[in-house]
Amino acid sequence: MMVNTGTVVFCADIGGSFIKFGLSRQQGEVTELARVATPAQSWDEFVLALQALLTEHGDGHPEDTPLAISTAGLVSPQSGEVMATNIPGFAGHNLAAELTQVLKRRVSVANDADCFALAEAHVGEGMGLPIVVGIILGTGVGGGIVFNGQLVRGHGGVAGEWGHGAITRTELVLDNNLVRIPRLPCGCGQTGCLDMLGGARGMERLHHELHQQSLTSQQIISGWQDEDAQSVLTIEAWLQLVGEPLTLLVNIIGATKVVVGGGLATVPRLIAALDERVRQSTLHSYPQPLVVPGKFVSQGGLVGASVLGRQR
Ligand SMILES: [Zn+2]
Questions:
Q1: How high is the pLDDT of residue 214?
Q2: Residue 143's closest CA among 114, 110, 171?
Q3: Structural domains in the chain?
């Protein structure tokens, strides 16, 4: 058996549909080796899938090579439980502790938004900065906080989840008109969460609310870039609704940099407009861009896991 020198870490990014599996030889670099369907309904089948991946790709590596996991859902540092609505098989299981035992190696687990924040804080757009917030503007809204290189997990793993709570405005001034904005019920049980209006699906809901027209977020964004009046109005509403809670988050934790992941981060002009909006309102001034697209918009889970797996 080879001696584990700690140089190699296996990484897995677990979503509701797929497990991405890779090998990292140094922090921030991961070679993706496999992609298999997530057995989301069954814990036993999930464990078997991980065992199969580790066996198939384990040749030439120490048997106790650590595994670092980025997963959908909230990871509680107190109980170890993962609350992932799209992976019901995780219910009632302490992921890190049970996998450490059954896979006979050190297994560390963090939420995918937290892994994105770790990746950006260590090897991305927030590299070396003291307080890095990673925000996800994907289908919904999520986030994670890294303080001096360390992930802040918080009670139940909830730290950085700025998209939930009754925070959206009920009225906006758009083109000198007062427009009512509904507070929508959210999957978390609250009403008025930014998660319902701030991500790509939220932008689509907002557009429908304002214009009674169903467009995809891509169509709305390209309409905005082409100066289509309806899309311009929707994006103006979106910038106000997202910019205000984000400014509050920046003020509360004194963020040095806010790095954006998720599908909407692939539109630099949209993130630049959000950055401008936020920097107009923060309590302390930011002469340089504060809200920027991430370096790891698509690979944040695996790259973040490569950082997580090397943290003590
Ligand atoms: Zn919510």
A1: 98
A2: 114
A3: 9-117+299-308 (3.30.420.40), 128-293 (3.30.420.40)
